[in-house]
Design brief:
Layout (H helix, E strand, L loop, with lengths): L1 H26 L11 H11 L1 H10 L26 H34 L2 H11 L6 H24 L5 H34 L4 H26 L2 H5 L1 H6 L3 H29 L1 H23 L10 H30 L1
Helix pairs in contact: 1-4, 1-11, 1-12, 2-8, 2-11, 3-11, 4-6, 4-7, 4-8, 4-12, 5-7, 5-12, 6-13, 11-12, 12-13
Keywords: Membrane, Signal, Transmembrane, Transmembrane helix
């Protein structure tokens, strides 16, 4: 259990760093408004692709137990070779994940990590609803916890909207489009939670293998997309001019993207490790705790750059509601496990 808690801590730390680094590369001018190069999403996919090798390295150095992240139906038969997913399952998982990633990353670049994390943390509620629709029973205490988490995030969202009230019409439109992108992407991300869990439980593919295979396909797709862009648009227009306009160094851009790849790999590694152990809904609750931290650091680091990033007493109150709801959900989940074991 102690190792599982380490994964949970790594998941939270890397999850906080992800949107903040996305903001950083945006403020360095290392993203393209139009046409979108999807470089932040590419960093995410490369991180996913590396997960299997990172996991194997950690096992080889006895940093983690070889069984962590494996569902119970993956037999320990000594065969650790490549187990490809069936094409249909791989295609579905990839389509859901890449669609979610495109929408959420584009939305984040428009609205900033402060607004983004309000909406994205509703993954908890969406995951629970989708799991329930697919037949997973939830206790009333779990629904109560989800309700409090959602209430806290709505309160946070109202605080963000108040901060954005002084924005120009064009900025307000950008925020609206960004909000819609993140919202739809969040629903798709919740669907990915639920679908990936079902794939893991029904197949002999480990969570790490699933992550790497999906990440590999997505990496190839985005690299191919960027290659096609270079035949239509000037290379400097796509990747160079915006960085020069911001006065940023290419070394700082390279460092920021390298850190983003590393953080994404760690986040995906910890997510898939926990997905095999905790289940989709409980993993989703961690997103709520992550949101509180992102709000704080976004306000400290980027308030002077974007009004919607700034902290307020209203957000502080919502933080307490989110934490309370998360605690209620965890206690109800433990009760559900005890009831399941008693059957």
């Amino acid at each position: 259990m102690s190792k599982l808690r380490v994964w949970m801590a790594l998941y939270l730390v890397s999850g906080v760093a992800q949107p903040l680094l996305m903001d950083k590369v945006k403020y360095l001018g290392a993203t393209s408004d139009w046409p979108p190069t999807l470089l932040p999403l590419l960093a995410h996919c490369i991180g996913m692709f590396a997960v299997r090798n990172v996991a194997q390295a950690l096992v080889a150095f006895n940093v983690v137990d070889a069984s962590l992240g494996k569902p119970s139906n993956v037999a320990d038969d000594g065969k650790e070779g490549f187990r490809p997913l069936p094409r249909r399952q791989l295609a579905i998982a990839t389509c859901i994940d890449v669609s979610s990633g495109m929408l959420t990353s584009s939305g984040l670049l428009l609205v900033g990590s402060g607004v983004y994390t309000v909406i994205y943390s509703s993954t908890t509620a969406w995951t629970a609803v989708l799991s329930w629709l697919l037949g997973q029973e939830l206790l009333s205490g779990q629904w109560l916890g989800i309700a409090f988490v959602t209430l806290g995030l709505i309160m946070n969202g109202l605080g963000v909207l108040d901060a954005a009230g002084s924005a120009s019409q064009a900025e307000a439109m950008h925020i609206f489009i960004g909000v819609v992108c993140v919202l739809v992407g969040t629903v798709l991300h919740a669907a990915a939670y639920v679908y990936n869990e079902r794939v893991i439980k029904r197949s002999r593919v480990s969570p790490f293998e699933l992550c790497s295979q999906v990440g590999g396909v997505e990496t190839a797709l985005i690299l191919g997309y960027n290659l096609a862009l270079t035949f239509v648009y000037d290379f400097n227009t796509l990747y160079v001019d915006a960085v020069a306009d911001k006065g940023a160094s290419y070394a700082s851009v390279a460092l920021a993207y390298s850190a983003l790849v590393a953080v994404n790999s760690l986040h995906s590694l910890s997510f898939f490790a926990m997905l095999g152990q905790l289940g989709a809904v409980t993993t989703g609750v961690l997103k709520s705790l992550l949101a509180v931290s992102v709000f704080f650091f976004a306000a400290v680091l980027f308030c002077d750059k974007q009004a919607t990033q700034c902290f307020s007493s209203f957000k502080a109150a919502s933080m307490l509601v989110v934490l309370f709801g998360s605690a209620v959900f965890r206690m109800a989940s433990e009760q559900a496990k005890e009831l399941e074991r008693a059957k």
